[in-house]
Amino acid sequence: MKGHAVLIADVVQSSGRKGLRAVLERKLEAASREHRRARSIDLPYAITAGDEFQTLLRKGAKIPELIFDLRVRFWPLQLRIGVGVGSLADRIEEPVNRMSGEAFQRARWALEEIHKRHSKYQVLTAFRTANDSFDATVNLIYALQDTLLLEGSHRQWDTVQAFQAAGGVRNAAGRLRLNKSTVSRNLKRSYFWQIQDAMAGLQKLISAANL
After folding, report:
1. 157-189: per-residue pLDDT in tens?
2. Domains of the chain from N-terminus onward
3. Which member of 11, 125, 153, 188 lies 3.0 to 4.6 Å from 51 by CB, making a disulfide possible if both were Cys?
């Protein structure tokens, strides 16, 4: 699949949240630093308006892992995330929010589709590319995965954050001052392992599509 991948995200139920922009700036600065170090994005994240931000993904980036990492970083804020693949109208240079083109338009359409589908059931992630079959498959998997994500309690998400930051059950237990069995139980109840398997499957589809 030819083209560049753009990610546009916004915050669910952002109206009335005091100090949201400062929170976004702080979290996006850290995410930009880590994701550029991991060679996952070409340009730093940039806030486009209010509660919305975007970036240009690097070729070969592990997009499902990046999306999940953003969700963990921003918790307890929930993000709607649209990914579009297509051409660019401008050369790649900062700031990303001044760039335009097909990829940006498709990412915007994907985000708008999330808002439309919310009337039936809540969805947090959508892709829009030139391949309708790919989009239908990936978006179905994400609709199911998002259902699992939305089932997580505050305690379970705290455990997922600790696990991701600490790099394992034992270290997460030490960070949270819990025993290992409690951490393992919280991860299981948050559907963490199913989500990990879903991300692995999504990555295979994306790699096969040569995103």
Report:
1. 999 999 998 888 999 888 888 899 999 999 999
2. 4-131 (3.30.70.270)
3. 11
